[in-house]
User: Fold UPF0386 protein ACFQ00_08160 from Sphingosinicella xenopeptidilytica.
Amino acid sequence: MNISRNEQRALHVLALGGCILHERGDGPKITSVTCVTREGMLLADFDLTVFNQLRRKRLIESRSGSPYRISKRGRTSVRAQLDNQGA
Assistant:
């Protein structure tokens, strides 16, 4: 499966315990998303298009209105990378 660099970054954050907070407008459509690491930091290059791509590929999921988390399919498709907190 082809996964872009931004999608890989988001999946890596989610695999380490992060989540995606979403907000809805007046209707059922999601209007804004924020990817948060487990430490509470925000992922800068995460936007609605990356979110929709991850959701379309079923790499993330939400259960009963809770924040989006990585799915089992997402865990198997994320590439291993070093934790780059020092860089």
